[in-house]
Amino acid sequence: MEALSDLLLGLSVALTPANLFWCFVGVFLGTIVGVLPGLGSPATIAMLLPLTFRLDPTTAMIMLSGIYYGSKYGGSTTSILLNVPGESASVVTCLDGYQMARQGRAGPALGIAAISSFIAGTVGVLGLMLIAPPVARFAVRFGPPEYFALMCLGLAMVVFLAGKSMIKGLIATLFGIWLAGVGTDIFTAESRFTFGMMELLDGIDFIVVSIGVFAVAEVLVNLESQAGAELFKVPKGLRNLLPSLQDLKDSRFAFVNGSVVGFFIGVLPGAGSTIASFLSYGVEKAFSRHPEKFGTGAVEGVAAPEAANNSETGGALVPLLTLGIPGSATTAMLLAALILWGFRPGPLLIQENPVLFWGLVASMYVGNIMLLILNLPLVPLFAQILRLPYFVLAPAILGISIVGVYSVSQSLFDVWMLGVFGLLGYLMRKLDFPAAPLVLGLVLGDRLEQSLRQALMMSQGHLSILVMRPMSAGLLLLTVVILLMPVAGKIRSWRLKAAEEGI
Amino acid sequence: MRLQSKNDFVAGLCVGGFGIFVFYEASDLPYLSEYGPGPGLLPLWLGIGFVSLAAVLVVNTLLNREGSEQVAWRKVRRPAAAWIGFVITIGLLSRLGFTLSFALLSLFLVLVMERRSILTAINVAVSLTLAFYLIFVFSLGVPLPLGPWGF
Asked: Of A47, A372, A403, A431, which has the highest C-beta tally within 10 A?
């Protein structure tokens, strides 16, 4: 009852004309930032932060948060249409979203991404509103051993991403983890695998790798034969450009799975939306009646990671607002903004600044509705991009790839690396090495190593710390179970074969 | 012995070689530091992991247990040409700027790779370059490499 009256207070703040206007500006800018690869929400918030000092702090926070969750809505667009992941969390959306686009189902894929983003975004805000303080207290009990176990669980998702060969999936994952280790070691400042190149001291950005192995490699594969007029089919009629009732029915579990996984992963500082999207995809495939369809254009394969990616926003705001702990670059920018305006994010923020907290929560409900209204009509428009003949799309994709990579750090070295990873991605495709596990390893590898080393420092080198704490032991056990699933499947198929031969 | 997949065999050997390189490089890094585990800890085990997985891949291929389809390397000529064009474009970015380099890449892909008419190629190159300039440079202010002519 108290939450309801607090929400009403929030709605009275969020629904003022000025806050509605700035909320719209935020979600609109966020959508644009999300659509364009490389232009991340942290950089956009950093650029706009000085301009918001003239605004009321609550209004400014509403707008900046709008950029944050709006960018997640837009992130799926280029992944689905062009196989260009704009952010690491969108990599998973490429797997089935792009395949749907190739089958003439770009519209339903974009539509389901928008709908699942709306549902999960709303669930994430509900979580933020109802269970923020207790969940935040639980999150701070997560120490390095638990993070290490969580990263292992995330890496175990390779089982669901490996495709035909588990060995090749594991090799790709190891290569991703190795790439994550390139650069300066943060504990000892020692350089590793930099080959004497200054540019590699900062490490390799995931965006360079993911755009290279997905987008550039895809263009190279498509250029193997001379392109006909259209590589993609785009059906006519609005009905065929939006998700059908069957699509929604097929995705109902994915909405729930993605929302729950996304929120709880979001609450953990530093875990991030990437692990949330990979985990929800793995859960969806593990419980699916037709796991073989994943990777070939399953609608649930788009709904689950998109839901997780958006629900994570609500979760990520929990430690930020209730404990003052930012879990990502974007929430760190939001924390900086709160401190600049004189707020003290922490356990007392909700009591001391109810207008800010509840106004923000209510604005996120409003913003999610705005985003759905903004994005669904854009679906048929975006789908029309695929009507362009491939000889127009190919240079456009390569151009977007260059802009996406260059805009992150203004480094031509990174663009050279894009060329290298494009070639690597192409060779991987030719030799049947899956690309998604490589990105999975790259994104989680850094955190995996950090948490392992921190855990071993805590225990003075004893590995037992990883299994002595109940939460990390439980997560590691789950990891082992998932990794053994393919072995169990093989044993079952051998037994069936033996039984058949016996007959 | 006839290999089911020569590609997997060669890929396995390459991964194995890479694993040995990682192991060798990692052994130069401290395995333990004064703070605890050193920067060589994970790469060393990664090297061992690479070599082990490569061995499994090679053995599986030798036993004809696992193998992807043979790659039609003849098909690689066109992507190789496109990739070289892409890399040359990257090289030109610092000299000609993004706008002109991208226009040349578009022209190359449409005219040489896709064998379209010169008119179509110019049309696509100019339209795409203009669209990129308007969206990224003019509207969003994205900093892109500039040429000697200021664009």
From this structure: A403
* Entry field: residues in chain A: 503
Place of tokens 């050997």: B13
Q: Cβ(A371)–Cβ(A16) under 8 Å?
A: no
pLDDT tens for A315-333 read 888 888 877 777 777 888 8
Strand segments, DSSP code E, in A55-212 are 183-184, 191-192
A 155-214: CB under 8 A from B = 164-165, 167-168, 170-171, 174-175, 177-178, 181, 185, 187-188, 190, 192-193
Nearest to B110 among A391, A399, A412 (CB): A391
Q: For residues A66 and A289, what is the distance between their CA atoms, to the nearest angstrom?
A: 37
Give the mean pLDDT of A215-222. 90
Taking CB atoms and an 8 Å cutoff, what residues of chain B touch A419?
A: 83, 86-87, 90
A273-302 residues touching B, CB cutoff 8 A: none
Q: What is the pLDDT of residue A423?
A: 96
Comparing A201 with A340, the larger pLDDT belongs to A201
Residues B83 and A422: their CA atoms lie apart, in Å, by 8
Residue tagged 């509103």 (tokens) = A129
Indicate the pTM of the whole model.
Answer: 0.84
- Say if residues A456 and A463 touch (Cβ distance below 8 Å): yes
B33 forms beta bridges with B36
Burial B117-151, CB ≥16 within 10 A → b, else e: eeeebeebbeebbeebbeebbeeeebebbebeeee
Q: Is there a contact between A278 and A310 (Cβ–Cβ < 8 Å)?
A: no
- DSSP letters, chain B, are ---S-HHHHHHHHHHHHHHHHHHHHHHTS-SEETTEE-TTHHHHHHHHHHHHHHHHHHHHHHTTS--PPPP-GGGGHHHHHHHHHHHHHHHHHHHHHHHHHHHHHHHIIIIIIS---HHHHHHHHHHHHHHHIIIIIIIT-------TT--
**First and final C-alpha spacing in chain A:** 66
Return the residue matching tokens 């959508």.
Answer: A31
Contacts B114 to A, Cβ<8 Å: 226-227, 391
Q: At what angle do helices A41-48 and A17-35 cross, to 10 degrees?
A: 140
